[in-house]
Every structure is written in C-alpha cells, then in structure tokens.
Amino acid sequence: MLSTLAQASAELAATRSRTAKRVVIASVVRQAVLDGADDGAADELRVVVTYLTGSLRQRRTGIGWATLRDAPAPAAAPSLTVGEVDAAFAATAELAGAGSAAARTGAVAALFARATAPEQHLLRGLIAGELRQGALESAVQDGVAAAFGVPVAAVRRAAMLLGSTPEAAALMAGQVPGGAAPDGTADEAAPLADPATVLQALAALRIRVGQPVHPMLAASAPDPAGAVAKTGLPAVVDAKLDGIRIQVHRSGPEVRLFTRSLDEITGRLPEIVAAVRSLDVREVVLDGEVVALDESGRPRAFQEIAARTATGRRHTGVDDTADPAAAELPADPGLPLSLSCFDVLHVDGDDLLDEPLRRRDEVLTRLVPAALRIPRTWAETPEVVEATFLDAVAAGWEGVVVKAPDAGYAAGRRDAGWIKVKPRHTFDLAVVAAEWGYGRRQGWLSNLHLAARDERSGELVMLGKTFKGLTDATLTWQTQQFLAREQRRTKTTVWADPPLVAEIAIDGIQRSPRYPGGIALRFARVLRYRDDKRVDEVDTLQTVLALSGPPAAAGED
C-alpha cells in the first residue's frame, strides 16, 4: 500500500487540477478501505489520510536531515505497508536517553532499506514536512467526500467536530458493510458505502465538551470598506487582539483549555481556569483570546505571554507526556493573563454552531460578564466601522474583525462571515532568489526570497520568503526575469543578479534566528514589482525595524 501512496503523491505533485487531485485522492482512499477490510479499514485509513495531507501522525520523530541524507540505497521492489511505516515512526518517536540517537539512525536505515526510490521520496517529504504535493487538507477532504459519495461540506463538519480529517474518514469507513463496497466490487465510480448511511452517521455528530474543534478563521480585507463589502451592514466589529487564540471547555467544575492547534494548555493558565469556573453555567464551549494588559488597559507585546502558553517539549518546562490538565506551572508564572471571549459554540447540551452570530452573541452576553468579553461594536454604517478600526489601532490592538450578524460558525476554515482588517506596512525590498513552485505552480518560480539593505554594512540581509499575492501573469513575468538574470541555481532555487525590487506588504515582524537580520516578516505578500527602482534604493533593515515596531516572538495570528 505504501507504493500506491507514493505513486499517488507523485501524481498529486504533477497536476494543478483540483478535479484531478480529487480523483487521485478518492482512488487512494477507496484502496485503503478495501485493503483494510480484513484487519481494520478505519485504522489503515487514518494513516493514509494523514500522509495524504503531507503529515505524520507523530508530531516529533527526532529524525534529522543527516539521517535522511545517509539513508541506504532504495529497494528494487516494494514491500512496505502503511501500517508498518506508521509503527516504525511511532517506535522512533519513543526513543530517548543514552543510545537513542544510534537506535533511531538504525531504525530509519532499516526502514529506508525496504523502501523503493518513490517510497523514499515520500518518506523524506513526510519526515521533513516538505512533501510539496499540492494536497492541502481541503483537497483531501474533497477526495474523501468523493470516495464515499457525500457532500464535502459534511466531511468538513465531521473533521471539525472530531478534530481531524483522518478521524472523519475513519468514521465513514466504519459505515462500509464488511469493509467492502456495497456490491462487493472495486468499481471506482461507486461510493464505498450507501451515502445516506454515511450522511446519517456524520449528521449525528455533536460537539463533545472536552474534545476541541477547529476554530473558525477570518479572511482578510485591505481596509474597513473592503470588509464591509463582504459582510454587509449592519456588522459586528470586534477588536483584533494580539494574543493566543484559546478554546474553553467546561463541564461542571472541570475546565480544559486548548490552543488554535488543539494543544491542551490548561495547567499553564490557572487564572483563566478560575475565571471560567466563576461563570454561572454547567456546560459550555467558548472561543476567545488570552491577552496581557498593562496598568492602563493597553495590550502588552505578544512575546510577554508566549512563554505562558507555549506547547511542546521544545518550548515549555511542562512535561507534555503527562496529563496536560494536571501540568504544573513554573514557580514564577510571570505576567497575569486575561480572557477575552468572542463566541460561544455550545451551552448546556445545545450546539450553537449553526446559529447566527446575533443569537450566539445574545447567549455570550448572558453567560459571560463584560470584563471577560472582547471589545465589540454593532455598526450600522461604514463610518462606524471605519471609526471603530481607527480607535482599535489607537488603543494598541492589531486591528478589527468585521463579522456578519447572520453568519454561522464555519469551524476549521476561513469564511466571508469574518473579515480581519489590520494596518498595513509596505516596504520596497530586494527579491534576491526564487524557488520553483509545485502543484498548480509547477514550472514557475514562485517562493520569493526577500531582503532589505543593512545601512551599516551596505549588504542585503534576508528577512523572509513569500509566495503570496502572485497572479499567474506575475508568476510568468518573474520566472522570465529570474532566468534572464540567473546568477546561480540549485535544484530548487534560482538566484538573480541584479535582484528584482518589489513592493511588499507585511503585518509586522517577529524575532527569528533563521535569518541574518534576526527578524522575519509576518504575512508578507507581493503588491507589485517596482521596475522604477534600483536595488540600492530598497528599504533598509533599520527602516523595517522602525516602522514595524518591536519584533514579536514567533506566535499565532
């Protein structure tokens, strides 16, 4: 089965067509269910769908580039199964202590020795997180829906409620009679199970308090008028806080707190737990932000709260192998944090996901005191939206999120019901190199290396990369320009001499040891190329630092 997955990955990387990707993914899903009929289709499918999204089930494997570089020659014929690979990665992730590095290297060598060249390519991409097959989670959900003959919206909703697309696919696989297609064949055009049966199982899903769901995300607009054009009026205008997105689950006295990536951080935020316990409610799921405020009520910098909420062994002293709800805080917890709620998803047995925002706001206002709610304005006119935006920025907030009062909670995806607006910083930067694209952008130079000039040394200093804001026409033009100016190249990247100059918009900067300047651009996107500017006229590193404010720690948007 791994060979089938490796072939599918290559096919996904070779096509830009969403329809073609759907066909490939649906075929792999079907094969996984049919192959797993005798020994657990659901378990097999969990792994397959995870790999299709370009990820491993194990968050950390401890496998570095040196180990991958020194892997043995590929096998002549396929023999690995997906289950064997998943088990090998699980065992590798558990290795620790003296001798673990050598044991890990040996385990990887043994695994790669059994893998063919295409399978090794797949495994390297999964381990490094750089599979580059153009199969985002939305495309995988599309393929899963096609395999079972159900609307993709039903799969999205299930993934949101269950926490992941693999879990949604596993639930659907459980509806397949005997683990095979209804007519006993492998007809590619036939659904794996009766669509009505699958839909019934999906429709029965409800929010489970204690099981985090993927949060709704906001789309973007360049200004308040652009946001109103998408949401209409009247509109709800929330302050956009530069904190940590948090999902609150309470059942009786038990409170659990989850980040945007669904990591649990309950033990790190005792003051938030206490605030939630003070609410007069038996069972609730809230969406909000954890922020730090100074004595005047203005928000503190993001990095001041990052240490309190960071997850994972690399970031925190909390042992994340233990129960996260019982994890102890460091002796000095540091700056107290505040909870600002802006939505409610469930209360006392009732799911509110499909209720309009105006109804959810009524419930939120009734349950949560103003001190624990986000600053919110109901705007009837564009002028009020604009004024609220300016007031929010003046107060030190990131901007605003403009929301449609009749919109439901579109969990797990960006939706036109929520539109974020931030002040925009623009700079003229040197585009010193570009990486070849993949998927829909295969054949074009796409991912741009951006640099500013250090006014002290006169050298160009790299600040980050972006592939945002590029139209097909721009991709074609910049590819031609880079090839005409080519100074050198590697397999993935072309360097230009002289570099191009582009006007780049950013939302801010953050500290980063990755680049020589010690900072990286946040959410950079190309506005236009500046063929009227020379490279020696690009903005300096010092200008970027001055106009963007102090760099934040790497964190969440």
TrEMBL record:
It catalyses: ATP + (deoxyribonucleotide)n-3'-hydroxyl + 5'-phospho-(deoxyribonucleotide)m = (deoxyribonucleotide)n+m + AMP + diphosphate. The keyword Glycoprotein does not apply. GO terms for molecular function: ATP binding; DNA binding; DNA ligase (ATP) activity; metal ion binding. It is an enzyme of class 6 (ligase). The keyword Oxidoreductase does not apply. This is DNA ligase (ATP). Residues 330-454 form the ATP-dependent DNA ligase family profile domain. Keywords: ATP-binding, Cell cycle, Cell division, DNA damage, DNA recombination, DNA repair, DNA replication, Ligase, Magnesium, Metal-binding, Nucleotide-binding. Its EC number is 6.5.1.1. NCBIfam families: PRK03180.1. One of its GO terms (biological process) is DNA repair. It comes from Nakamurella leprariae.
